[in-house]
């Protein structure tokens, strides 16, 4: 079994791929035509707050199933084993926290931008800082999504053609159709992504002689050792890093990230909003299971001839596209389906980000400065910003070809920025004594700490004894020995460092599991915020509205309060802020 170059895209693969692109654009145009009579900002950004749970849940899952997930998770399972399955527990914890704590509060306040809450609870400066952090985070994530497109270029698909197609399609349906177009396009894209995973698993099972053979190969190769209860926080993936750190990280994404929040606050009732998160949880379980099993299938096929070590691919994240062209090229159109799946993930992420970036820009920057804008002016502004952010996101993706391990890179970026922000929200929602000075100080300190450890981990990546890569073999590639190949870093680097190059912090502080970045930022922000608030007289501040805090009745009480409408509208926002 000597590996080498694989086939490139056939005509039918291009037909399937282009059909997917046109299908996504068609859905967006249909929503634009359908809603052409209602051009209000609320309709554009939140679908008129009339969405139901199931399509919103599928959209939430599709945004999770970004190209990063489609490409990165199978590569993770191939190289490090099936421990990623434990994230199913994290998804459940995240869903409960988001649905029972954050949704009732945001729904009660009737916000459009998540960061409106920060001004209501603290002050305008903190709101602007929070919005800016979100924009920086989102733009950086699109660099990682650009790496996804680089990875699928192993199929022979033209990278620049894909980038241009992504930009044009997203700009069209985001500009014309707004959030409704994004949500319904996500539903279509989710089906495509799941079909891509199923195609890989089904063909792999045929080649290997059944799912049982794949499972047995992975057991023999040590890929099924899921539960490592070592409490060492420096180990990359253990039960505790995934369940504790992973839960906090995903809670920060679903609870306060505008791209996600904007979806579920578009639901027409509080019950629907909560239900969307629980249905999404089931979708996440299905998605991660298919993604991990795709990686295990890949290991079963390549257990004796690793394409990466053999030089057939240049990066770990190119393995799944390589596999697709290796085992599915004989079936015209099927490789096109897989690449369409990875592409759909990227398309979903870009489109949701465009819509969210427009929302925070209008609500947090433009409307506070220009209070007399008409609905027509805001509508044109929404559409113009959609075009601008569309080109910005694609431009950032185009310069991302140097990125490597995309899955960990994406989650690390989320952890470094979302952690301090989550801590700021929790500080405001649970502690009445927290004031603006404490909140701002805690946010800055938390961000400095997470950037310190995150950037340090990029420069001095953890060694193999902390990342625990599993053995791979090239015995079937006419080689005589097994290799213990290790990826070097959260962002794969071509630089090899010897122990003499590493400072003392490299094997302690900088080796902290990337899943703890978010938890670290959250804890530092809350603790520093409480201490500084106490020092600066937080207990003496004027009384705040109870609407700004988590209520006991919010917890597991989907039918409490006015379930059919938002309790606070824009003109009443001032009533819940500090006087």
TrEMBL record:
Gene3D superfamilies: Sodium/glucose cotransporter. One of its GO terms (molecular function) is organic acid:sodium symporter activity. Keywords: Cell membrane, Ion transport, Membrane, Sodium, Sodium transport, Transmembrane, Transmembrane helix, Transport. The keyword Ion transport applies. It is found in: Cell membrane. One of its GO terms (cellular component) is plasma membrane. It comes from the Eukaryota. PROSITE patterns: NA_SOLUT_SYMP_3 (PS50283). InterPro entries: Na/Glc_symporter_sf (IPR038377), Na/solute_symporter (IPR001734), Sodium:Solute_Symporter_SSF (IPR051163). GO terms for biological process: propanoate transmembrane transport. Belongs to the sodium:solute symporter (SSF) (TC 2.A.21) family. This is Sodium-coupled monocarboxylate transporter 1. The gene is LOC112221214.
């Amino acid at each position: 079994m000597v590996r080498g170059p694989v086939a490139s895209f056939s005509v039918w693969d291009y037909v399937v791929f282009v059909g997917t692109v046109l299908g996504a654009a068609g859905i967006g145009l249909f929503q634009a035509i359908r809603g052409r009579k209602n051009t209000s900002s609320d309709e554009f950004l939140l679908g008129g707050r009339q969405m139901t749970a199931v399509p919103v849940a599928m959209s939430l899952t599709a945004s999770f199933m970004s190209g990063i997930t489609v490409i990165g998770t199978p590569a993770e399972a191939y190289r490090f084993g099936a421990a990623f399955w434990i994230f199913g527990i994290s998804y459940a914890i995240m869903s409960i926290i988001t649905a029972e704590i954050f949704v009732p509060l945001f729904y009660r306040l009737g916000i459009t931008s998540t960061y409106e809450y920060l001004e209501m609870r603290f002050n305008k400066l903190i709101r602007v800082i929070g919005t800016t952090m979100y924009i920086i985070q989102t733009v950086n994530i699109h660099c990682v999504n650009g790496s996804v497109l680089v990875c699928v270029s192993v199929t022979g698909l033209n990278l620049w053609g894909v980038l241009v197609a992504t930009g044009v399609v997203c700009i069209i349906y985001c500009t014309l159709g707004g959030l409704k177009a994004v949500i319904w396009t996500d539903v279509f894209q989710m089906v495509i992504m799941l079909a891509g995973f199923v195609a890989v698993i089904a063909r792999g099972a045929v080649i290997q002689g059944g799912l049982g053979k794949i499972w047995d190969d992975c057991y023999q190769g040590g890929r099924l050792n899921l539960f490592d209860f070592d409490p060492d926080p420096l180990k990359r993936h253990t039960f505790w890093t995934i369940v504790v750190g992973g839960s906090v990280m995903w809670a920060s994404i679903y609870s306060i990230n505008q791209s996600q929040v904007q979806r579920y606050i578009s639901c027409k009732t509080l019950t629907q909003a909560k239900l969307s998160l629980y249905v999404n949880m089931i979708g996440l379980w299905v998605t991660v299971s298919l993604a991990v099993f795709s990686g295990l299938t890949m290991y079963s096929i390549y257990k004796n001839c690793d394409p990466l070590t053999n030089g057939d691919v240049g990066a770990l994240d190119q393995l799944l596209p390589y596999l697709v062209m290796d085992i599915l090229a004989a079936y015209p159109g099927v490789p096109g389906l897989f690449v369409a799946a990875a592409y759909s993930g990227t398309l979903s992420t870009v489109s949701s980000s465009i819509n969210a970036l427009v929302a925070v820009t209008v609500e947090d920057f433009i409307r506070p400065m220009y209070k007399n804008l008409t609905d027509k002016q805001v509508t044109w502004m929404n559409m113009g910003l959609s075009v601008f952010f569309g080109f910005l996101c694609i431009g950032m993706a185009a310069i991302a070809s140097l990125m490597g391990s995309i899955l960990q890179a994406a989650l690390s970026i989320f952890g470094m920025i979302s952690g301090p922000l989550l801590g700021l929200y929790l500080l405001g929602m649970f502690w009445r004594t927290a004031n603006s000075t404490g909140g701002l100080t805690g946010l800055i300190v938390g961000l400095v700490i997470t950037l310190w450890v995150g950037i340090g981990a990029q420069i001095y990546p953890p060694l193999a004894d902390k990342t625990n890569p599993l053995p791979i073999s090239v015995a079937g590639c006419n080689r005589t020995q097994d290799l213990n190949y290790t990826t070097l870093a959260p962002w794969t680097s071509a630089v090899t460092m010897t122990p003499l190059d590493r400072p003392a912090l490299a094997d302690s502080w900088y080796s902290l599991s990337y899943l703890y970045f978010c938890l670290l930022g959250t804890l530092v922000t809350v603790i520093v915020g409480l201490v500084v608030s106490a020092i600066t007289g937080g207990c003496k501040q004027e009384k705040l509205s109870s609407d700004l805090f988590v209520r006991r009745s919010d917890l597991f009480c989907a039918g409490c309060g006015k379930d059919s409408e938002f309790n606070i509208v824009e003109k009443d926002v001032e009533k819940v802020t500090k006087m």
